[in-house]
Automatic annotation (TrEMBL):
Domain UDP-glucose/GDP-mannose dehydrogenase C-terminal as annotated: residue spans: 304-409
Pfam families in UniProt: UDPG_MGDP_dh, UDPG_MGDP_dh_C, UDPG_MGDP_dh_N
Annotated SMART domains: UDPG_MGDP_dh_C
InterPro entries xref list: 6-PGluconate_DH-like_C_sf, NAD(P)-bd_dom_sf, UDP-Glc/GDP-Man, UDP-Glc/GDP-Man_DH_C, UDP-Glc/GDP-Man_DH_C_sf, UDP-Glc/GDP-Man_DH_dimer, UDP-Glc/GDP-Man_DH_N, UDPglc_DH_bac
Catalytic reactions of this protein: UDP-alpha-D-glucose + 2 NAD(+) + H2O = UDP-alpha-D-glucuronate + 2 NADH + 3 H(+)
Keyword Oxidoreductase: yes
Family affiliation: Belongs to the UDP-glucose/GDP-mannose dehydrogenase family.
Protein name as it appears in the record: UDP-glucose 6-dehydrogenase
Lineage: Bacteria, Pseudomonadati, Pseudomonadota, Gammaproteobacteria, Oceanospirillales
Annotated EC: 1.1.1.22
This protein's pathway: Nucleotide-sugar biosynthesis; UDP-alpha-D-glucuronate biosynthesis; UDP-alpha-D-glucuronate from UDP-alpha-D-glucose: step 1/1
Native source species: Salinicola lusitanus
Length: 426
């Protein structure tokens, strides 16, 4: 098929690379706010495993063309829109121009997180028979975008048009070989389901964080509680890990979008509001543990942080817990030494020349030299099994604040360090 992909989101880059890799002729037009010349240098794209190599391979093969404007004579079978939520007007403007250059039937794929009902509106803007819009909500996971697109667990396909459904199945046939991945439903249902999934995941995380706080108060190790809950088949183990808060551009935006949807219908969601409030408060958990350990005497101290990205495998720091943590530490006169395998550049751009921020590249132990505590914020694999003797020698005070509960409290204590986790006990 001839496919035009429009957008500068991770979903757009992944779709362009994946679709051309299986033989489709793809034209990719990044959004005007973030053209390819700058997109190609973006940390989040460079750090996404294998994705940029796939894009370059597509260009070299001739199956992928990256353009600033779609040619006037373009006659595509599919226009794939993967834009950010605040680019909805841009999407509508783009779709209005499509019928004028089109002489054959086409599909508009709404792969963006727009308000519920937007796919129907995009179809109405086309105004031609044989031109339909379907909803295919973005299900890409940062850090494993290529894998989640090419080997999907499932797609939410919102379509009420039999021909449109057939075309999408053909478009993605190469990625639907292992098992049936399409869950067919009406367009509005697909749009709402995408938001509902992230709302449920966020609720599970925040509930576990609430339980971790309760476990601390009752002198209970929350790991026993997590294991017991997860063993119940009605609950399962996924997203039951307490921690120092979640972040990320897509997760956070989807939650706000779901809250907006509820508000627009006159239904206030006290549950979702509470979930968001819990998450924001948990981003300060490690700071409060540090405060309690030193009895509020933090002025002039140095803290090491391992991990700044909102999750392992990405260079993004959007809404990341580290941002709240940094502001709290700096307000108390604390100097912070940060190591992250991918996100230091983004942190440096956000806080250029900050006097209390030291970015430590290369050896992650260098961040711990002379520090009064180590905070584990993002659970990159390189942090899971440190050289405990070297760590003990590097730290001025042998205190570890584990924001992701990746260490065994008893073992860390046996190596001569003080351990503080999220609801964990040695």
């Amino acid at each position: 098929m001839r496919v035009v992909v429009h957008g500068s989101e991770l979903a757009a880059a992944t779709a362009a690379a994946a679709l051309c890799s299986v033989g489709h002729q793809v034209t990719w037009m990044p959004h005007a706010e973030f053209r390819w010349d700058s997109l190609a240098r973006a940390d989040w794209l460079i750090s996404e495993p294998g994705l940029k190599d796939q894009i370059l391979a597509g260009e070299e093969s001739g199956q992928l063309a990256i353009v600033d404007e779609v040619p006037a004579d373009a006659d595509a079978d599919v226009h794939w829109l993967a834009l950010s939520p605040d680019q909805r007007e841009s999407a509508e403007s783009y779709v209005r121009q499509v019928p004028g250059r089109q002489s054959t039937p086409l599909i508009i794929v709404n792969n963006s997180t727009f308000p519920v009902g937007q796919t129907e509106k995009l179809e109405a803007l086309l105004g031609h028979a044989g031109q339909v819009a379907v909803a295919l909500p973005d299900r890409i996971e940062e850090g494993r975008a290529w894998e989640t697109f090419t080997r999907p667990a499932h797609w939410l396909l919102g379509s009420e048009d039999e021909w449109g459904t057939q075309q999408i199945r053909e478009l993605l046939r190469a990625f639907n070989r292992r098992h049936e991945v399409f869950q067919l439903m009406p367009r509005r249902a697909a749009e709402l389901t995408k938001l509902a999934i992230n709302g449920m995941l966020a609720t599970r995380i925040s509930f576990m964080n609430e339980l971790a706080g309760l476990a601390d108060s009752l002198a209970v190790d929350v790991e026993y509680v997590r294991q017991g809950m997860g063993a119940d088949t009605r609950i399962g183990f996924e997203y039951l890990y307490p921690g120092c808060g979640f972040g990320g551009p897509n997760f956070s935006r989807d939650l706000m979008r779901l809250a907006d949807v509820q508000h627009s219908t006159g239904r206030e969601s006290h549950l979702l509001e509470h979930v968001l409030d819990i998450n924001e408060s948990k981003k300060e958990t490690l700071f409060r543990k540090l405060w309690n350990h030193f009895k509020g005497e933090l002025e002039g101290r140095t803290v090491a942080i391992w991990g700044a990205a909102f999750k392992p495998g990405t260079a993004r720091i959007d809404h990341a817990p580290v941002l709240t943590l940094l502001e709290a530490l700096w307000a108390q006169g604390v100097t912070v030494r940060v190591h992250d395998p991918a996100a230091l550049h983004a942190l440096g751009e956000l806080y250029p020349d900050h006097p209390q921020l030291i970015l430590c590249e290369g050896d992650f132990y260098s961040a711990c030299e002379g520090a009064d505590a180590l905070m584990l914020v993002t659970e990159w694999k390189c942090y899971w099994n440190p050289d405990w003797r070297r760590l003990l020698q590097s730290l001025k005070t042998p205190l570890i604040l584990d924001g992701r509960n990746i260490y065994d409290p008893a073992y860390v204590a046996s190596r001569g360090l003080v351990y503080r986790g999220i609801g964990r006990r040695a």
